[in-house]
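Re: your question from the hallway

Yes, I did run it. Sequences:
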Amino acid sequence: MVRLLTHNLLACHAKNCNANNFPLQFKDVQLEIREADFNPDFLKGFMPKIDWKALVDTARQLGDTSLPLEQPEMVDDEFLKNLHHVLLEIHVEEGSMTCPNCGHVYPISNGIPNMLLAEHEIG
Amino acid sequence: MPSRFLIHYAQAHHEFRLPELQSVAELHDISYKLPDDPKDRDPTRPFMVVELESEEHARILARRCILIKAVYEFYAKGSTYEEVHRNNRQSEHLWKRYVEDTSFRFLVTSSQHKIPQSRQREVIESFSYMDFRGKIDMKTPDILLMCFEEYDEKPGTTRERHEGDGDFREVFFGRLIEEGTARQLVRTFDVKKRVYYGNTSMESEISLLMANQTLASPGKFIYDPFMGTGSMAYPTGHFGALVFGSDIDGRQMRGKQKVPGVLRAAQQYGIASRIVDLATFDITINPWRCGDLFDAIVTDPPYGVRAGAKRLGRKRELSERQKELCLMHSKSPRPDDQPYIPPTKPYELSHLATDLVLFSRYLLKPGGRLVFFLPTTDEYQEVDIYSMLCEGMEVIANSLQDFGSWGRRVRSDYSQAPLQVLIIRIQLVTIKKTTSKQFPPPTFEPIQPSPDESAHVPAHRDFREKYFQGFKPKSNETSVAEEATTS
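Structure:
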């Protein structure tokens, strides 16, 4: 859990943290690889939603270099397989995500990130 | 050319029958035509004759609709057997091909009634003009012919054996095409057999019906913002969708073991890889980076009888001094501190419902669906549901069901005191995003009470308070009850 698909969709939402609040930085992570159903249609439909740079940078940080730096115009099967692996099969089980702007730390335990904010961080 | 099919429905959740048919047909691109006469599409009756393009479409419905027991090729119906036989002779082109050499079984059965054996035989013999020459095979016949007598339901009465035999409302006759296989899922997903559930977990049949309303299928991305113990996620995942769950209280999703409870239950159903992620956050202060993400949002919001909805914040504001102390403490926690849990305040139901629609409009893809449950009382009015809508979101189905009533007596001498009841109704609402316009994320600001006193107050407003305090006397006992409450 905390797959890179999820990581690509979550931004820091603390009060007044509106710029440079994405992507959150993984720290002290424990990874697990788990197989998932390959569905090319889902991937193609999801691609326009991806912040590509954030995805590639994060994947590289976690040791996966299979994705190209630029999102390709044409997608082939091999690319989709790599994208599938990066988005859906890498799980961050423990560790934390830190906001690059305000420094808020979102802890991850047993694969579930705690995205709740403290009292002084909400509007 | 479309042909007619006879659908045998389970006698449960009548209100969901047509919405489910519509959803499953839309999902599989099936066109259908309901009977013209309202009496023939009355959802409380066990049979409905529907026009479909092909037998294959009938099979698809039988495999996906939770409420379908079986589908038949329709041959005839009638309020008397003369009429049935007359119509059946006109359908000869449909059954002629089985006459020569097809093994068959002939079943005469009924609803709410047991037909005596002798008359069953009579009925079978009355069909002898069909002249089927194949072998009669009770175990593995090539075809099953079924003649079904529909008797009126008489709830609350016990019938004598065979009482009113032959006094049926209508007779239906057809050939079995496929037994409904989706109905078995009600047992598969039975909460009692689930390895992880909570005290507010949704009953499996309803959660399956809701999953059908979402049009869940492989490749779809579906979100439950009040995940709880995941009741809505399992059927949607079973139908192939990827599911994301969030909840303000992570303990519901986690349970007490290392592997989160929701994942353990998902493993039991073989769909763990389809639970994309679980995250703890408050939807009113949420981390979603962008909208237009999900094909459907399906949820059973906490409505507050056993577990009330919560949002971040405090019921009573702290003084400046207290706030300062809290902040100081959070910056330098003591080493033995438990993990910080932020304070929460109640989230009133009608407010939550309005917010949920706005939130869904932001997060759903165009054409996406929001499917959720809303409790209300017998004061429900049609306008309640429309008062929560916003531009670009339209109700496509609203199935209202009496959920029973909770009654109580207020004085110690129970038998004498007037019975006060609160009638609870549950509505399953399906709303569709009908726009491709982009909307900003909702602000989740408290709705200011309207200065206009005539403004409509929906019956689900303050449901929790109504539940605990609002037991009202039955109207004819009003004066007694007033006396009871004042004494």
